[in-house]
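S.,

Sequence below, as promised.
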Amino acid sequence: MAKVESGATDVLVCGLGILGQCCVSFLKEFGVTVHGIEAQQKTHWEIPELPNLLDTLLIGDCRQTKILEQAKIRQCRTILLLSSDERVNIAGAFAARSLNPQIRLVIRSAQENLNETLGQHLGNFVAFEPSVISASAFALAALGDETLGLFNLEGQLLQVLQLVITSNHPWCNRRLLYDLNTSRRRILSYTKAEESTSNGFYQWEPDARIEAGDRIVCIEISDTAIASSSASIKYGRQIRSRIHIAIKWQNLRQLVVRLWLEGSQTQRVIIVSSCILLSLYLSGVLLYKLQYPDIGLQDAFNVSMVLILGGYDNLFGQLKLPFPIPIWLHLFSVILSMAGTVFIGILYAFLTEKVLSARFQFLQRRPRVPKTNHVVLIGLGRVGKQVATLLQKLKQPLVGVNDTDLEGDTLSRMPLIVGNSQNALKRVNLANAKSVVVLTDDEVANLEIGLMAQVINPVCNLVISTVDPGFSKNIAHLLPRARALGVYALAAEAFAAAAFGENILELLHLNNQTTLVTEYHVQAGDSLNGRLLAEVAYGYGVVPILHQREASKSTVFMPRDDIRLQVSDRLIVLATIEGLQNVEQGKSSIRSWLVQVEAASSQEAAFDGAMTIARISGCSIPMTQSLMSNLPGTLECPLYKHQAQHLLYELTRVRVNARLILASEFDSQ
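The prediction came back faster than expected:
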């Protein structure tokens, strides 16, 4: 990503709703000039200090060239079109491109096919939908366990895990943190047992020994086959368990009661009619058997069945009765036949209702509400549907609650309770739920539902969606155990980062801050070209997780620190907003460590040591060969702590003795 050069450096934000305001706030953290266009004059800002953050604020239509020119569109590097009306955003994108052919277009749009077409024709174009970007953060917050992130790169599943080390863990008192960094895993943060707050990227000592109670956050390549197999086994066990529960006779009464309480008026009529008809049928069998002892039991069942199914004329339709029958039994036969006719009419009405309600579609019946360890998802709007889809992909049991029924076969494999959200809490087994995620469009209703859920299940993992940043702070005071996540605040970081040319692939929430999975394509003259990955990682504070050479097309996960980036290389990293800002400005942290080489065991070891130092430190080979020819000596090329520690381990492997010293100590000698 190129540094901010002279010329087009400003950013223009069109549409200053909550999303636009959050984007302005994040953009100002990058130290760039931000201009804003809002369609109507606002008397209230969700972020009160926003007018002071903007260098220029215009009221008007961003589709008009006059307004764009007043907003200094020609000196802007990027325009963010964030109106809730996609037509306005797309029209504004064309207007901006006509005035500034080089400007980067970042728009808010959910039309995937249209976005792809626009990207091909306009170029330097990216489109996001806030609900899609933020959905993964809500889904992972709902899991509430060691899985903090899960995303797909190049067909490979990567997961971010939080591990709490126990005394019987295989790493406990046996492994150093540095040893955990492999070709399939990278350490993201490490917190000792006595510490309460998690450290950020690389804020840990590589040679620290892992002890009981320590917390480690790492990213690793997931074995999808094993995960799928274990999920299938678990699902099979759940099915068998449900079947076993269903066939117990003691659950029959509970089933009837639930059908009565949850069923419609027609269903209740069916239940009452069935009970009455069954009683009449059995009474008919008993009475005919007692009145005519010579007939068999099967004949008694047959006579009663014929009468119920409207076959009265088959038995008594002749002018003279075919057999003697008491008047009371004759009247009972008439009543039995009439009751059967009425019941068949009710049955036809019930079937007609079902056919009409199904809209002549053969839809799959929704499964039952899980009994325990499930996620209760309240509010199935655009964000809610995205979250539900992700949770289903993760094989997480869940139940959805929505005010209205979902159309067609939308989320057909998810149990769904339709009705008032507050009343629905009684029907979702909330007391045994693992998590409750509240995603309705009403923030006050979300808070009210969250308070009710906490009363019923104080230990559940409570996640609440918010819009207003100030309201999120209030929720934190009322519900200290809850996680209040702002849909627009989460999405705004991705939009702000995309303003500088990055492709945001995923959004994670780690260590109480947003982490972005960001893709770079190295270009000539930018802040990545020619640098070692160690310099990118430790200098800028990002974690490289994928590297690809443009020439060979070979993809490497968890790449080595000694790879030097070239033009057209593709690099995917985990980065915070601060890390992206460091890359944008080319701002590296200070290198404060030196490697002091003491001795080599042989001439061959000295040669290997020179090559190792050149490869890891980035110094020239003549310089490292000169160092190894005049031992003991100090490599007067400052390194980052983790980079220097890596070099020390590699020198030990080639039988070269060395140690680390602070650059300040060397200067004082």
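Residues 165 and 613 are 35 Å apart (CA to CA).

Coffee later?
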